[in-house]
């Protein structure tokens, strides 16, 4: 079947978009895993290293690492099945997802421009036709420019180059088609196809929620689309039906929002936020809203962790935020609602991070802008389209200027992204670069210390932790990791002191309780250690596998075999691929005289990667 020429134009534009992403971002394929959550999510996460049903069920059954992102974990598991511990393949998946998102931005932009266009008489073009039929040259040019500005901007580097940020790529992969399906549903209301598009939009919304909880804002975006674009001329009873049809979306948002709050309840307020003055905390939300548009326009000194600004900059940002909002509202009242639509969609998507309360250790990060900034980039694309058609008498000049400026901006963004990619090549380069950009923050020093410690440079690690603590004396992470370095140097008393200080700095630091408990157990103080493990279990109720495992060891040494067995079994419930728990459970069964159960435990330990279990079975002539 011969495709229309316009369809070929869109296919060619999409291929060019993908090719440009590979041209700029392909160096990421040579990057290493980062000792910065990649260990937690991928190469040290036994539960994603097998696609057995029990592991998949674990991904969906409970939050992990203070968030509920089961589809992100599942994508890591699929990657691990395909590539193992080779980072090349994991980076390839992230790059392909970014390419797909770029094409989706392009297609969504065309659909939105179709919805914006009016035919004579003011009636909105609302047919079931695909946007291809309305993809005129001006629309394709405008949206193409907006898509490139989004995809090649150096703020995208963090999401593409950091394997652990898979969740932002995935939530966008499902959120954009969700909006597109809703636009199709709205275009064919009253037809047999409408229900299919509605259910498709709801299904894609669910997948987005399972990728990252930020998707809870999508129903608000749908309402903004209704108010400012699709049904802006409707009044009265129709609004009731428009709100009612959003109830399934809103119910899912509320449910996942509550789940996200529960999952993150153990998170600590960012140290950066706690050090802000009262005036800075008041200005923080407005500054956070403007942070990403300002970085979008002036993308310099990008870093994995940003320091707090002074009050003058926060005041300027607050004034700009209020001014833009007022201007957008006035424009909407004059019939130009596209600016307000883009601005509101951006704000509602960035809201979960603007106070620093829900953003974990960082109040600002480039990755937080991945989905929210799309609405602003599409607005820029729409503006390019408007300019492309607006000046009929000076078409050649205007279009030439637009082409040169757009190409220049795309080249600048692409070059900046290419320069930013090597920063993320490995964790040591990343944190040394961050120290250079933000030398007054403790986190880069502490994270560099973790990298040095993982390479066996204990003294170098202690030096970095000392610098972090000099900046922030109550920095619990640095104190905790200092304890690990002291233990590696067999300085047990210093390690215990560091863990105690970490607990004093953060009473909810479950890992510090566990490590201090292990020191007591190794010293024969089993009851003291068990008490600390019990506290850790209460503090880390969503994932207490490690405390249960270590308490099992202590109980085994005490001679309480049945309770030790219960602890190992509890560890496995929370972490189905906990190899050491299976392995130690095997020895408990041996001591209890249940050889059959013991061998079954050793086999399961071997299957999930226990080298000790594999060697034991091999020595006895067993296979697994």
Q: Can you describe this structure?
A:
The chain has 624 residues and is mainly α. It has a domain at 5-424. 70% of the residues lie in helices and 0% in strands. The chain contains 30 helices and no strands. The chain has helices at residues 5-25, 38-43, 53-61, 70-83, 87-116, 137-152, 157-161, 166-187, 193-211, 218-230, 238-244, 247-263, 271-274, 278-297, 311-333, 338-350, 373-390, 395-420, 427-437, 442-454, 458-471, 476-488, 492-505, 510-522, 526-539, 545-558, 561-574, 579-591, 595-607, 611-619. The two termini are 53 Å apart.
Mean pLDDT across the residues is 91
How much beta, percentage-wise?
A: under 5%
Q: Based on CA inertia axes, which overall geometry fits? A: globular
Helical proportion, percent range: over 70%
Number of helices: 30
Order of helices and strands: HHHHHHHHHHHHHHHHHHHHHHHHHHHHHH
Structural class: mainly alpha
Number of strand elements? 0
Distance separating the two termini: 53 Å
- Report the radius of gyration as a whole number of Å: 27 Å
Sketch the major β-sheet.
none
Low-confidence stretches: 118-129
Brief account:
With 624 residues, the chain is mainly alpha-helical. It has helices spanning 5-25, 38-43, 53-61, 70-83, 87-116, 137-152, 157-161, 166-187, 193-211, 218-230, 238-244, 247-263, 271-274, 278-297, 311-333, 338-350, 373-390, 395-420, 427-437, 442-454, 458-471, 476-488, 492-505, 510-522, 526-539, 545-558, 561-574, 579-591, 595-607, 611-619.
Main features:
single chain; 624 residues; mainly alpha; 30 helices; globular
């Amino acid at each position: 079947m011969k495709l229309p020429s316009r369809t070929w134009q869109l296919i060619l534009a999409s291929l060019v978009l993908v090719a440009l992403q590979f041209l700029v971002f392909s160096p990421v394929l040579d990057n290493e895993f980062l000792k910065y959550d990649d260990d937690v999510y991928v190469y040290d996460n036994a539960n994603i290293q097998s696609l057995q049903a029990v592991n998949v069920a674990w991904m969906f059954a409970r939050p992990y690492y203070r968030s509920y992102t089961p589809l992100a974990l599942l994508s890591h598991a699929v990657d691990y099945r395909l590539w193992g511990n080779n980072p090349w393949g994991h980076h390839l998946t992230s790059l392909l997802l970014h390419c797909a998102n770029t094409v989706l931005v392009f297609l969504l932009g065309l659909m939105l421009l179709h919805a914006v266009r009016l035919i004579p008489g003011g009636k909105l073009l609302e047919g079931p036709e695909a946007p291809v039929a309305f993809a005129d040259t001006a629309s394709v040019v405008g949206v193409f420019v907006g898509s490139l500005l989004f995809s090649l901007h150096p703020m995208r580097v963090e999401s593409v180059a950091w394997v652990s940020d898979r969740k932002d790529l995935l939530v966008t992969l499902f959120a954009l088609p969700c909006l597109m399906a809703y636009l199709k549903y709205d275009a064919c209301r009253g037809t047999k196809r409408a229900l299919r598009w509605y259910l498709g939009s709801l299904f894609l919304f669910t997948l987005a929620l399972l990728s990252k909880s930020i998707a809870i804002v999508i129903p608000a975006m749908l309402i903004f689309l209704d108010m400012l674009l699709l049904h802006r001329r409707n009044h009265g009873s129709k609004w009731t039906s428009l709100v009612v049809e959003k109830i399934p979306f809103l119910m899912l948002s509320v449910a996942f929002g509550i789940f996200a709050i529960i999952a993150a309840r153990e998170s600590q307020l960012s140290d950066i936020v706690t050090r802000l003055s009262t005036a800075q905390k008041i200005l923080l939300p407005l500054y956070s809203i403007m942070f990403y548009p300002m970085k979008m326009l002036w993308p310099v000194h990008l870093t994995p962790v940003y320091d707090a600004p002074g009050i003058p900059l926060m005041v300027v940002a607050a004034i700009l935020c209020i001014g833009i909002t007022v201007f957008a509202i006035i424009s909407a009242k004059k019939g130009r609602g596209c600016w307000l639509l883009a601005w509101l969609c951006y704000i509602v998507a960035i809201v979960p991070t603007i106070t620093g309360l829900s953003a974990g250790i960082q109040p600002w990060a480039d990755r937080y802008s991945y989905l929210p900034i799309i609405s602003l980039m599409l607005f820029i694309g729409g503006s390019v389209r408007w300019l492309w058609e607006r000046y009929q008498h000076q078409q050649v000049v205007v279009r030439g200027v637009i082409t040169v400026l757009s190409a220049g901006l795309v080249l600048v963004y692409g070059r900046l992204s290419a320069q930013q990619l090597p920063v993320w090549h490995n964790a040591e380069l990343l944190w040394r670069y961050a120290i250079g950009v933000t030398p007054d923050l403790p986190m880069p020093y502490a994270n560099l210390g973790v990298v040095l410690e993982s390479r066996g440079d204990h003294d170098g690690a202690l030096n970095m932790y000392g610098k972090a603590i000099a900046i922030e004396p109550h920095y619990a992470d640095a104190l905790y990791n200092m304890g690990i370095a002291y233990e590696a140097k067999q300085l047990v008393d210093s390690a215990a002191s560091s863990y105690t200080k970490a607990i004093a700095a953060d009473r909810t630091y479950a890992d510090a309780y566990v490590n201090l408990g292990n020191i007591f157990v190794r010293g024969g103080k089993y009851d003291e250690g068990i008490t600390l493990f019990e506290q850790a279990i209460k503090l880390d109720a969503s994932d207490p596998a490690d405390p249960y495992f270590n308490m099992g060891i202590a109980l085994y040494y005490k001679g309480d075999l049945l309770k030790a067995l219960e602890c190992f079994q509890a560890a496995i419930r929370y972490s189905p691929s906990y190899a050491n728990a299976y392995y130690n459970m095997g020895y408990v069964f041996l001591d209890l005289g249940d050889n059959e159960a013991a061998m079954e435990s050793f086999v399961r330990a071997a299957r999930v990667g226990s080298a000790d279990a594999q060697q034991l079975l091999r020595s006895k002539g067993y296979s697994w």
